[in-house]
Design a protein that fits this description.
- The complex is a heterodimer of chains A (201) and B (260).
- With 201 residues, chain A is an all-alpha fold.
- Chain A has one domain.
- Chain A has helices spanning 4-23, 27-45, 51-73, 86-113, 119-137, 142-163, 167-189, 193-200.
- Chain A is globular.
- The longest helix of chain B has 29 residues, at 152-180.
- Chain B starts with a helix and ends with a helix.
- The chains are: A mainly alpha (201), B mainly alpha (260).
Chain lengths: 201, 260
């Protein structure tokens, strides 16, 4: 299968998922967007890695989504935090537009620095890093911080896959993503852990 | 037998065992303290890269453990770092029960020390960033024990230390290029900026220090002090090992010449 034909549509797809993660108030939509985002990461990584190795990104990403969804499923609230107002969404979209401008203006220079990376990989990775950082700057919710960090790491993994093909790095990066999801899941359930222990007793 | 097996794998496995036994907190605290003291003593006394006799048995003790095409090396030069790391852990574990820390303190603390030791020995150096990140993630339940509210400090701690990882990894890749092309001063300078920023984020250097007072306020003071000691302490040791081993960063004149 020629993944290079998919590369540019995938860049738009992961930009869209990054924006959905940024503006969506519903955790189910956010985690679904993250799962789609990991498919995009897989397509961009497979341009540099063997399919057998690149599939690790997809499997790990979907495991991350499953862990977060399971942790959040116990909670009764579907809204992550109060960000459903029109002005809030507009502000976040405008900020995402600014990230897009920064990405567009810096990509040509970075391509000169690191010629091993293709323009699609650079655009995809850089957009995710930018949107992830923006996400981290706008929140103090445990789930959103986890989603933001996973987005930044996913962007970095796209860029790093082009320059480093080591199996150990692939494994360690997968372990870090899973560890981040587990830490995020722990932070989501930790206020209710003692209650659960009391119930068992 | 090899050194990483003794100072990485054994404490990692023991931490899992202690996690299972964490109901008996006093026993786990004693076991953890004795373990790290014994590991500090072996780091001090055991001859690495040598043969020694255990009764009639002759045991070859190497400093290298190869896994997935990469190596973990804990040679004689790393001895002092190992002794410091394990003695510091013994200091904190020793009074953990009296300080009324969470029952997860010793098992997860030992897992952290094991991961930080692995970060000290991994080759190439750039993989250390990923092992440090794992140690940071393991420390999250120490700082936010069950039945406590998630504070902003722990979120900022995870965020800033995780953001340091890509910088160190990318700088490591750039520097591996510099190894082959030592005349490329611009490349070296860019890599130095990246690694400087990565370590600044992980060592909580101003302006990335805000998580320290926040964590001190939100978390159990003993657990917070353990993290404040072990994480930046181990990262500093790793940075020293890195600057010792990496030929491109040895002469500071190179950077000065580049700046001119």
């Amino acid at each position: 299968m020629n993944f290079e034909l998919l590369a540019l549509p995938v860049v738009f797809l992961i930009s869209l998922t990054g924006i959905i993660l940024l503006v969506s108030p519903d955790w189910r939509v956010s985690i679904a967007a993250l799962a789609v985002q990991y498919f995009g990461v897989f397509v961009l990584v497979v341009m540099s890695w063997l399919l057998e190795m690149a599939i690790v990104k997809l499997v790990t990403g979907w495991m991350v989504c499953a862990v977060l969804a399971l942790a959040k499923a116990g909670s009764s609230e579907s809204i992550i935090e109060e960000q459903g107002t029109v002005m809030n969404v507009l502000f976040r979209l405008l900020a995402a537009g600014l990230v897009g401008l920064v990405v567009a203006s810096t990509v040509p220079r970075i391509l000169v620095w690191v010629p091993e990376i293709t323009i699609e990989q650079l655009l995809g990775g850089w957009v995710l890093i930018g949107l992830g950082l923006l996400h981290l700057g706008l929140t103090s919710s445990a789930l959103r911080v986890t989603l933001g960090l996973l987005t930044v790491l996913a962007g970095f993994e796209i860029l790093y896959a082009a320059v480093e093909t080591s199996v150990l790095v692939a494994g360690l990066l997968a372990a870090v993503s899973l560890g981040l999801a587990l830490a995020g899941a722990y932070l989501l359930v930790v206020p209710s852990l003692k209650v659960a222990e009391d119930e068992i007793e | 037998m090899n050194a990483p097996l003794v100072w990485v794998l054994i404490p990692a496995l023991l931490s899992v065992v202690m996690l299972v036994l964490n109901r008996w907190q006093r026993f786990v605290t004693i076991l953890g303290t004795v373990t790290v003291l014994a590991l500090a003593a072996t780091a001090w006394l055991l001859p690495v890269k040598d043969q020694f006799f255990l009764g009639p048995l002759m045991i070859n003790f190497t400093d290298t453990w190869a896994i997935l095409g990469r190596r973990f090396v804990l040679g004689p030069a790393d001895r002092s770092a190992l002794v410091i790391l394990y003695l510091a852990a013994a200091f904190w574990f020793g009074a953990a029960y009296v300080a009324r820390t969470s029952s997860l303190f010793v098992p997860l603390g030992l897992a952290m020390v094991s991961l930080l030791t692995a970060a000290l020995g991994v080759e190439p150096f750039l993989f250390a960033a990923l092992l440090i990140e794992m140690a940071i993630l393991v420390s999250v339940p120490l700082l936010t024990p069950p039945d406590s509210q998630v504070g902003r400090g722990v979120l900022r701690y995870i965020t800033l230390l995780t953001l340091g990882v890509p910088f160190i990894l990318f700088a490591g890749w750039m520097m591996s290029g510099v190894e082959f092309d030592l005349v490329n001063e611009t490349f070296l300078l860019r890599a130095s900026y990246l690694i400087g920023l990565g370590f600044a984020l992980q060592l909580a250097v101003f302006p990335f220090h805000s998580w320290i007072p926040m964590l001190g306020k939100e978390s159990h003071p003993y657990a917070a002090a353990f993290v404040f000691t072990m994480v930046p302490g181990a990262i500093t040791l790793i940075m020293l090992v890195f600057s010792r081993d990496f030929p491109g960063l040895e002469p500071p004149q190179r950077l000065l010449y580049c700046c001119e």
